[in-house]
Amino acid sequence: MEFVKEFSTFLYQKGVIKFGDFTLASGKKSSYYVDLRLVPSYPHQFRSMIKHLQNNIIDNTGLDRFDSLVSVPTGGLIIASALAIETVKPLIYVRSKPKDYGTSKSVEGQITKGMKVVMIDDVATTGGSVVNAIKSLRESDIVIEDAYVIVNRMEGAEETLKELGVKMYSLVNIIQITQALHEQKLVSDDILEKVRKQIEK
Question: Which residues are documented as binding site?
């Protein structure tokens, strides 16, 4: 679990994770905010994160068990692009809504019916954006059974994806991060308690 400790400390020290009062994109209130878009500004940590993600996929799915990586703009796409280069795997992505010009496609990249893909995203909260992407992929006869995220906020995404027959894996979850920071006296008992309560809701 050395990675969890080091990664959590890095996230905290660089302001990738902040504790306080925040409103999420969904309108939901949160006692913390994770902005993984900051991570590529730190190439060594970014590369380490991508390598751990790659190993997670090798251990759980196997690189030879799928045809392509898939992601959703924008947060997940940066991670998936770096991962595609490391694993030498094709990459496709799903727009949140089809573009209203040109080809009007919602799935971008080279696709074939029956191909198997693995979803990559940055942070999983309720799983909403990934659910829409999964539906678009299945409409194009693309097979998806596994999804990988960097941070699981533990607010329903895993269960939502499971209902769709997709297993979600994460590098770290919010409890692991907060506990690692708490053990190092970087966050207070109060913050740890707030995060736990938010998950229980």
Answer: 95, 99, 121-129, 153
- Hey, which CATH number is domain 2-200, 3.40.50.2020, 3.50.50.60, 2.160.10.10, 3.40.50.2300? 3.40.50.2020
DSSP bridge partners of 66: none
Q: What is the pLDDT of residues 61-118, one digit of tens each?
A: 999 999 999 999 888 999 999 999 999 999 999 987 765 665 567 899 999 999 999 9
Binding-site residue ranges for 5-phospho-alpha-D-ribose 1-diphosphate: 95, 99, 121-129
Specify the pTM: 0.93
Please give the annotated binding residues for orotate, written as ranges: 125, 153
DSSP 141: T
SS3 90: coil
